[in-house]
Amino acid sequence: MYFSQGIDIVETKRIKKVISLYGKKFFNKILSEKELLNFNYSNTKKRNEKLSGIFAAKEAVSKALGFGFRNGVTYKNIEIINNKFNKPEINLVGRSKKILTGLKKKNSKVLVSVSISHEKNYALSVASILIY
After folding, report:
1. Half-sphere exposure of 33 (CA within 13 A, CB side)
2. Distance between CA 89 and CA 120 in Å, rounded?
3. Which residues contact 113 (CB under 8 A, 6 or more apart)?
4. For residue 4, pLDDT beyond 80
5. Which pLDDT belongs to residue 42?
6. What's residue 45's pLDDT?
7. To the nearest whole number, what is the mean pLDDT of the chain?
8. Buried (b) or exposed (e) across 71-89, using 16+ Cβ within 10 A?
9. Which residue(s) pair with 114 in the sheet?
10. Looking at residues 24-53, what average pLDDT do you find?
11. Pick from 126, 103, 96, 102: which is nearest to 114 by CA?
């Protein structure tokens, strides 16, 4: 059995500042094409809050994988997509998926979970990986 967790906290003002400096260039660096399609840019307050949560979640998942953002893992390799109940779910692609596959044993099952929370000026995320 393998179990790993990652955690990250982001100040929403920091994300707001980066968005004001780089705009869509920042969105394109952080979000995959699938995430960009699901992302609403209209409401500035909600946009900053949501992107802060996504950013924290991607950081937490990268830490749970054990590498952070190195060895070919990028922000676009980790997709955060909300299901029909608005719960964030993880979709790993590219290098991050290969790393997870490398951790698996034959016939093992994998559970990757993420939780995102917002409080005033912060977004927090915890990610867990369980292979059993």
Report:
1. 1
2. 23
3. 90, 127, 128, 129, 130
4. yes
5. 60
6. 73
7. 93
8. eebbbbbbbbeeeeeeebe
9. 127
10. 86
11. 126
Give the residue ranges of DSSP H helices in 12-110.
12-22, 24-30, 33-38, 44-65, 94-103
Alpha-carbon distance 40 to 5, whole Å?
A: 29
Q: Tokens for 109?
A: 């099952």
Residue 60: which of 78, 39, 46, 47 has the closest Cα?
78
> According to the model, what pLDDT value does residue 44 have?
72
Q: 107 in the Ramachandran plot: left (φ > 0), alpha (ψ -120 to 50) or beta?
A: left
Active-site residues: which are they?
63, 118
C-beta separation of 31 from 23 below 8 A: no
Q: Tokens for 72, please give them.
A: 């070919």
Would you call 93 helix, strand, or coil by DSSP? coil
CATH class of 2-131: alpha beta
pTM above the 0.85 mark? yes
Q: What is the pLDDT of residues 69-95, one digit of tens each?
A: 998 999 999 999 999 998 999 999 999
Whole-angstrom Cα distance, residue 49 to residue 56?
Answer: 11
Q: What gap in Å lies between CA 75 and CA 30, rounded to an integer?
A: 5
